[in-house]
TrEMBL record:
Name the record gives this protein: ATP-dependent zinc metalloprotease FtsH
Annotated source species: Flavobacterium capsici
Subunit structure: Homohexamer.
Family: Belongs to the AAA ATPase family. In the central section; belongs to the AAA ATPase family.
CC cofactor note: Binds 1 zinc ion per subunit.
Amino acid sequence: MAEEKKSNNFKFNPWWIYGLLIVVFLLLNVFSGSSFQEVGKITSSKFNDMLDKGKVEKVIVYNKTEAEVYLTEAAMKEKENKKIATDVLGRVNKGPHYSFEIGNDELFQKKLEEARSQNKIKTFDFKQKGEWTSILVSILPFVFIIGLWFFIMRRMSGGSGGGGGQLFNIGKSKAKLFDEKTDVKITFKDVAGLEGAKEEVQEIVEFLKNPEKYTKLGGKIPKGALLVGPPGTGKTLLAKAVAGEAKVPFFSLSGSDFVEMFVGVGASRVRDLFKQAKEKSPAIIFIDEIDAVGRARGKNNFSGSNDERENTLNQLLTEMDGFGTNTHVIVLAATNRADVLDKALMRAGRFDRQIYVDLPDVRERKEIFEVHLAPLTKVENLDLDFLAKQTPGFSGADIANVCNEAALIAARNNKEAVDKQDFLDAVDRIVGGLEKKNKIVTKEEKRAIAVHEAGHATVSWMLEHAAPLVKVTIVPRGQSLGAAWYLPEERLIVRTDQMLDEMCATMGGRAAEKVVFDKISTGALSDLEKVTKQARAMVTIYGLNEKLGNITYYDSSGQSEYNFSKPYSEETALVIDKEINALIENEYQRAIKLLQENKDKLLKLADILIEKEVIFKDDLETIFGKRPFDKSEDELVAEA
């Protein structure tokens, strides 16, 4: 039985053919009298001269027309024969060494017999060389090259390496089909959060399962839904859940699967994809990363109007909403770059719905933690609310990474279960990078880093709208030498005073260096980058500057007419630069003033930081006292 099973699993490999061709080619070379050795061409007079001097060991005549000459060992050492002394592989050339065309074969035979009687040559022979072997030797390299070309074309067109399948299926769709024969285990229960997005895609599944419920009232089944959102928020996962929930054929592929180097292939694959879907309708097509093929046409197109990608997009537009469109095929697509998509692709009738998949809020993060913590061995009564609050701005993929990193950290520390501290360490590892405890830092540098981070902590503690501090560390992580960790509030809108307080806290590090040492360093690079972006956004995007007024130079559609120039004059550019500089400088001076008023507490905090390397919120409360504008737990509960 085992032998029978093994034979059933046998797969033919085309490389065996090419290997066999090479072996046959080598054998024919050997048996036909050819080899890898170089054979020189000489004239009959040159041969007569070598024969008279006793340099020839033997001669073989083929087909009474061509003679091959083998030289003696002594002759091989002569300078004129140096080129043929070795073959192309560096081995001793055993011959033949020279060849030439003979005239009358009878006269040549008599000459050789006479030379042998005079001991000028050891032996000679007359042989026949088969012409079929010569023909095979000449055509076999071409057969090998053609076979190799067929193999490469087959691999490029997606043919199987085992020899099965079509030879030229390059225009066929590469979509993977999920149907009743394919078991997809992911369902909507595995997708935590995303309630609004789930509701919309669930309705699409319901459309296909029970279309009469909607069509009897005159409604039409939507033709497409576009999932839009930042990376890692669960767009592809949502599509997998649709495949698991919908009991209809589900075709899944990436936008890059349409792109090919050959003209017309992309459009052919689109046609084939929709043809297969229509044959199995009702069906769903899912195109991941659709921006690879759906970019806006006519922008930065220097390759002419016959661009292959544009042809593919045109075919996709026609298939989604054109003559002969099948209404029982729904297209799902996902992208995190909706701003670059073509307007014709985004219109109603093609993608009737745009479902925005946003970053999860604190409640949704708790649900996502519950999903990813299920397979982990964790301590009892793990506070999921605490973990959700510690990960603001994290996507679903980030939370999955946190859970995995926490498990790895716990295993590294030989723990029996993953606990709260492992998750905190995992968040630090992901946000800040790996700890570098062996990094060489001098005492002066360590004090400068401590003062810098203490400056951030002090200023943020004194400001009402700055993000609440979690901890401060001077242990190097990733590219940073120290860090102040905050827990920002999840605001839907941000006011001017809130942004200014955050900018002031960001400048607190450099301000502390100025107050304590009266010198500044390069350690504030990331702070300057952050605060410059914030100031520029206030002036040019959000219209929060008094001099420029209620105006924005931001185009959310990405289709601005100002693609190659600034959307404002040079005079306005000068005003923008001055206002950005004034905003940053004002907050810097404000931070300096705050630190000068609390210099003794700043130095005390820096000393504790040098001693402990990591300090928490409790340490700041010991030095500064409780923040007067912090709300009590009862007040927070009442607001909630």
